[in-house]
C-alpha cells in the first residue's frame, strides 16, 4: 500500500526543526506540531471515538514529546517517534477508561456514526444510494468500536492512515508478523459485522 507516510523518513526540514527545538527554539517545535498534529489527532480520534478526548490526548502527546525531545536521537523519523508516543498514551488512556466503565456504543460522541472524520462515505455521486451509504458508514464505525484496542490501533494505522506494516511494527514495538496477524483477525471481525453489505 503506497502512501505519503512511506516518504516520511526524516526529512532535512524535520531534522533541522528538531535540532533547533532541542536547542530551545520553541517556534521550531510549534512548526512540528502544526505539521503533524492533524494526522496524530486523526489516529487518536479513530481509537477513542471522542473529540474531547482526542483533543486532550493530542495536546498531552505533544507536551510529553517536548519534555522528552532531548532523548530523541533520530534513529527513526520524528513522526514515527511521536506516533509511538501517541499510540502508547492512547492505549493507556483506553485501558484506564475501560476500567472506569464498561464501554458501549452509547458512550460514543453523539452522531459519530455519521461523522465524516471517522469514515467519509457521505459524498455519494448518486443520491439514491445515500441511505445505504449512511447505513454502511454507521455499521463500519460500530464495527470499529467492537474491536479490541490493539486491533483498532492496527486497522486505524494501516487501513485508514496508510502506514506500512514495517512502520506499524516500529511504532507498536511488535514484529511485522504480529501486525499482519492482528490485521487479519481484525479484518475478519469487520467483515463479520458488514456481511450484509459485502455479499
Q: According to CATH, what is the topology of the largest domain?
A: Rna Polymerase Sigma Factor, Chain: A
Mean pLDDT across residues: 78
Q: From the 3D coordinates, which CATH architecture of the largest domain would you assign?
A: Orthogonal Bundle
| Main β sheet profile | none
Uncertain residue segments: 1-10, 102-107, 110-114, 117-125
The span between the termini is 25 Å
Write a structural description.
The chain has helices at residues 12-22, 26-48, 51-68, 78-100, 130-146, 149-160, 165-172, 176-193. The chain has 199 residues and is mainly α. It folds into two domains: 9-106, RNA polymerase sigma factor, region 2, helix turn helix motif (Rna Polymerase Sigma Factor, Chain: A, Orthogonal Bundle), CATH 1.10.1740; 108-199, Winged helix-like DNA-binding domain superfamily/Winged helix DNA-binding domain (Arc Repressor Mutant, subunit A, Orthogonal Bundle). Mean pLDDT is 78; it is low at 1-10, 102-107, 110-114 and 117-125.
Helices and strands in order, then pairings?
Elements: H1 12-22, H2 26-48, H3 51-68, H4 78-100, H5 130-146, H6 149-160, H7 165-172, H8 176-193
Defining traits:
199 residues, Rna Polymerase Sigma Factor, Chain: A, mainly alpha, 0% strand, 2 domains, Arc Repressor Mutant, subunit A, disordered N terminus, 65% helix
Amino acid at each position: 500500500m503506497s502512501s505519503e507516510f512511506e516518504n516520511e523518513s526524516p526529512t532535512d526540514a524535520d531534522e533541522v526543526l528538531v535540532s533547533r527545538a532541542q536547542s530551545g527554539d520553541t517556534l521550531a517545535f510549534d512548526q512540528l506540531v502544526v505539521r503533524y498534529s492533524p494526522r496524530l489527532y486523526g489516529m487518536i480520534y479513530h481509537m477513542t471515538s471522542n473529540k474531547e478526548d482526542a483533543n486532550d490526548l493530542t495536546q498531552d502527546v505533544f507536551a510529553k514529546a517536548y519534555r522528552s525531545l532531548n532523548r530523541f536521537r533520530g534513529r527513526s523519523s520524528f513522526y514515527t517517534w511521536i506516533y509511538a508516543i501517541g499510540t502508547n498514551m492512547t492505549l493507556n488512556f483506553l485501558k484506564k477508561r475501560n476500567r472506569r466503565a464498561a464501554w458501549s456504543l452509547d458512550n460514543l460522541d453523539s452522531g459519530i456514526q455519521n461523522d465524516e472524520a471517522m469514515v467519509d462515505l457521505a459524498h455519494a455521486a448518486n443520491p439514491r444510494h445515500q441511505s445505504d451509504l449512511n447505513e454502511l458508514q454507521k455499521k463500519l464505525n460500530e464495527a470499529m468500536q467492537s474491536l479490541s484496542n490493539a486491533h483498532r490501533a492496527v486497522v486505524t494505522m494501516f487501513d485508514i492512515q496508510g502506514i506500512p506494516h514495517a512502520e506499524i511494527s516500529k511504532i507498536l514495538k511488535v514484529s511485522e508478523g504480529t501486525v499482519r496477524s492482528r490485521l487479519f483477525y481484525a479484518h475478519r471481525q469487520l467483515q463479520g459485522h458488514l456481511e450484509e453489505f459485502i455479499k
